[in-house]
Amino acid sequence: MSVAYNPQTKQFHLRAGKASYVMQLFRSGYLAHVYWGKAVRDVRGARAFPRLDRAFSPNPDPSDRTFSLDTLPQEYPAYGNTDFRAPAYQVQLENGSTVTDLRYKTHRIYKGKPRLNGLPATYVEHEQEAETLEIVLLDALIGLEVTLQYTAYEKWNVITRAAHFENKGGERLKLLRALSMSVDFPTADYDWIHLPGAWGRERWIERLPLLTGVQAAESRRGASSHQQNPFIALVAKNADEHQGEVYGFSLVYSGNFLAQIEVDQFGTARVSMGINPFDFTWLLQPGESFQTPEVVMVYSDQGLNGMSQTYHELYRTRLARGAFRDRERPILINNWEATYFDFNEEKIVNIARTAAELGIELVVLDDGWFGERDDDHRSLGDWVVNRRKLPNGLDGLAKQVNELGLQFGLWIEPEMVSPNSELYRKHPDWCLHVPNRPRSEGRNQLVLDYSRQDVCDYMIETISNVLASAPITYVKWDMNRHMTEIGSAALPPERQRETAHRYMLGLYRVMDEITARFPHILFESCSGGGGRFDPGILYYMPQTWTSDNTDAVSRLKIQYGTSLVYPVSAMGAHVSAVPNHQVGRVTSLTMRGHVAMSGNFGYELDITKLTETEKQIIKEQVAFYKDVRRLVQFGTFYRLLSPFEGNEAAWMFVSADRSEALVAYFRVLAEANAPLSYVRLKGLDPNQDYEIEGLGVYGGDELMYAGVAVPHRLGDFISMMWRLKTVQR
């Protein structure tokens, strides 16, 4: 069984893959955390938590000074009744107090995994894939019930957690804090990893030692953001990419989040994660309930790569959904960096004609096709075709593209409105705003209030009409500013701080409805590039534009860091023009191709202006990628050399049967009289021989244990791709 309860010891034992997660009921119903790590047959107290009289740790039972919630490792702790550490939740009563006391009431264990109402989450296709444990905690004084939801996957070292609040009392309750999970570790002898960044520099890997006090990654921007990502990991001091213990925490949510680690006076570490309590409250009338998002917790004893491979497989096959989940993604050309707003029908058709000659499969029309959108100062919200640019409309353009043998895709930004637009002039109250305050703009636009049902209903129908108007098979869904003046004209004063979360619930509803109406369309999410690259969005859209920064050197770190959590099938990666539009760097078409071919491949430049030599290189890149596309998008991914640790980067993709692999190697800057470089490969069959095209035939064991020598080449920005196939001895 995946989940078992022992009534004699009052222990819950969750077995997920090759990991164990153990909890126990103490004294009068306190739920304590006992163990999480490599699978064990049973937990009998070999590492029992010592009972000590700790000075300045008060005691809920005055007769026992060795028992305090301040020292008990807990599963869902409160604040105010002897635990001084960060709580998982906090509730305000009508009398103004915030002290609560949750105790065990009951539990149930069942096969499968339930959906979370209104929220994205991982899922099962058959109930045998997982078992779920629900533990109901009750504060009998106020009638608050909190159901802790745990699911243990059979195949993977994965435990998912969430919490459901229900007000069964007679008075109103106000949630001030409602995190999805909390885990107390008995030691703080770890490093922690998070993925900070900025626009054009998303998801860089930062590894730091745990220190006494609070360390956190969070967003207060109304989105998961470029600046942080809803992921952290606890990493053993000796752990690296391929060995050592790692604990990963990933929040399936796209809005404001908090991921926090607190190291207390006794050297224990409390990890908690969920919706950011900052500027958040939620009013629970009697009978009302609240559901937190899901946290996906992964244990690995095979280093960071082991953790990543678990997230990759789970998120690719049990988070992403729809027809494109397991389907190869098309090679596309996007006109944005080729034309920006300055295009017409003839220009797009010419790009499509050249794309067809090069073997590209999809043409994407980006921003500027609607309203009077000649720049970014106007017309967002006016989703009507600009007939001056496109006299035959989207349908006429799409059919011309289709006649060339190409698919047609479209850019939209449904969550925003320009002050200079017909929509805003008609509905100025439809954007996020607060009374009597200026409405701050970002990129000359405001954020539509998706906490309102009427706004969501309007956008569902408007965007559906656009997508039904032409043979569209791909949509790039963009979002180009974060939230300010977060308030809603449709909510009463006591619910204003619910706006940001209600926005996310509205957005998820809109995305769910539109993607369900158009199952034949491949949706790619975007937020100024990678500003909302999170698991919540992947539930609705199986891929995301990884970054607006398409420079090949910058993308080494961006794509490497992104791969810590997210599968390659989720990463959009394009070849753009040089000098690069974001950093001004000049790299070879070959290196740009190798970096972009390490994700969902495409181009973002004016291919009509290329030389014949450049067109031939692109034609060869396109043909090569088509041949290795399934391996790249759905193979097992290994990180080999980190661009954060040196002048080189390398990674590889291995087929499920280990008969084929693709290795990508990159060197950023040349060095005079440099030492030789060797790359140790991973994931091969040690008993098989592999032919590396252009290099020779070698044993899988030799390639993994001794490594392969990197051919010497002069110059900056060098890249190579080696394709491996097994050969008969």
Looking at this protein, list some descriptive labels:
alpha+beta, 12 helices, 729 residues
Biggest sheet features = 10 strands, antiparallel
N- and C-termini, Cα separation: 44 Å
Report Rg.
27 Å
Number of DSSP helical runs: 12
Overall pLDDT: 96
Helix proportion: 10-25%
Give the amount of beta strand, in percent: 25-35%
Shape, per Cα inertia axes: globular
Total count of strands = 38
Structural class: alpha+beta
Low-confidence parts lasting 5 or more residues at pLDDT below 50?
none
Describe the overall structure.
Strand 26 (472-477), helix 7 (499-517) and strand 27 form a beta-alpha-beta unit. It is built from twelve helices and 38 strands. The two termini are 44 Å apart. The protein has 729 residues and is an alpha+beta fold. Strands 6, 7, 8, 9, 11, 12, 14, 15, 19 and 20 form a ten-stranded antiparallel β-sheet that branches. Strands 21-22-23-26-27-28-29-30 form an eight-stranded parallel beta barrel, surrounded by six helices. The radius of gyration is 27 Å and the shape is globular. The mean pLDDT is 96.
